Inverse folding.
């Protein structure tokens, strides 16, 4: 994705489509015809400003940010209304291609979940948060034994076990290559977090999971509070960048009014993630505000714990970046301190290995161009 040019313009266009007006944010059914006149005019000007060679770049960024199925139908309709048949066809083909990918992935995901349930509880994490978009991997959590997971995947799906990195082993997760499925199946076993340090959060995830229907399939997914904590772990404590889907997904959760904030903060604080969660949501709120003119309706008792907001993030290498120093390091220290105070000595020891792992990954990346053997 580093080859994409004018990514800031592309991200702005996608953000305009998805966030310009509150009533359309996060919806899979609204269209440009339903946008206010002013927003429709801005969208029209932005679309008109795309030259032909930029269109694949826009498609690539929409894919990498997991928003194509929410952004491109609106883009397609707007171009159709303006009498641009070539661009209408291009957007339609992109939507159809992604729809086929998602349908194929779901046709594998449900039987995989059912098969793994022979060993324990199975919950789909992260991947379905973006619906009607879908993540690039299929992420699962289970409380089954790791050996049972490997045996089931190999026996039932002829899966090949991908090489495990040091980080994978610490996090207690396995990646599987399944014939006919382009996406990796990533299974987190009994633990969450970059080094597998989060076990209380994992237990809460199982206890409060709920069933949902996605297309013609049924899955168990996290409750809103656990979903937000897992997303915080991924974005603020591992990758240190956000995708546009994170903004859209979590803004929609806030606007639906389904979050139990006292429980969310209690869950996050007990895991040492309270300030990271608050910061994450304030960054998202500030991003939304930049397109709507007003922030998300977050409680003051939560936002007061934020370390920083949208003013500290920046766009680089196609994603919305969070500074590793000093902010990432500070959040790491807070998580480690809380685990120590909780008396979770083994989990604290696991987490204490993270700086060394990160250093090794950086060195490996510099020497070989890849850190896959480390992370």
């Amino acid at each position: 994705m580093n080859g994409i040019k004018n990514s800031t313009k592309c991200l702005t266009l996608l953000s305009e489509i998805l966030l310009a007006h509150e009533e359309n944010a996060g919806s899979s059914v609204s269209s440009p015809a339903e946008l206010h006149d002013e927003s429709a005019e801005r969208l029209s000007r932005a679309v008109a400003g795309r030259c032909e060679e930029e269109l694949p770049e826009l498609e690539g960024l929409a894919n990498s940010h997991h928003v194509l199925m929410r952004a491109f139908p609106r883009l397609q309709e707007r171009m159709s209304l303006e009498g641009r048949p070539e661009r209408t066809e291009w957007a339609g083909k992109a939507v159809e291609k992604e729809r086929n990918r998602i349908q194929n992935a779901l046709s594998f995901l449900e039987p995989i979940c059912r098969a793994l349930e022979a060993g324990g509880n199975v919950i789909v994490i992260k991947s379905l948060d973006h619906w009607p978009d879908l993540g690039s991997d299929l992420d699962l959590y289970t409380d089954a034994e790791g050996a049972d997971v490997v045996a089931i995947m190999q026996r039932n799906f002829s899966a090949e076990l991908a090489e495990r990195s040091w980080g994978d082993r610490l996090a207690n997760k396995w990646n599987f290559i399944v014939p006919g499925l382009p996406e990796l199946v990533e299974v987190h076993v009994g633990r969450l977090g970059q080094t597998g340090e989060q076990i209380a959060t994992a237990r809460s995830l199982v206890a409060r999971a709920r069933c949902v229907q996605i297309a013609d399939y049924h899955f168990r997914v996290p409750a809103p509070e656990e979903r937000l904590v897992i997303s915080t772990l991924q974005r603020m404590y591992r990758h240190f960048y956000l995708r546009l889907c994170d903004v859209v997904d979590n803004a929609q959760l806030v606007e639906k009014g389904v979050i139990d904030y006292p429980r969310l903060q209690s869950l996050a604080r007990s895991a040492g993630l309270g300030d990271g969660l608050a910061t994450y949501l304030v960054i998202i709120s500030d991003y939304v505000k930049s397109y709507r003119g007003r922030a998300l309706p977050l409680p003051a008792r939560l936002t007061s714990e934020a370390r920083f907001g949208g003013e500290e993030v920046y766009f680089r290498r196609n994603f919305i970046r969070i500074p590793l120093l000093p902010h990432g390091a500070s959040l790491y220290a807070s998580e480690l301190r809380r685990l120590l105070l909780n008396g979770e000595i083994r989990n604290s020891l696991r987490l204490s290995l993270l700086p060394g792992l990160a250093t090794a990954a950086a060195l490996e990346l510099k020497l070989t161009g890849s850190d896959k053997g480390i992370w």
Summary: The two ends are 19 Å apart (CA to CA).
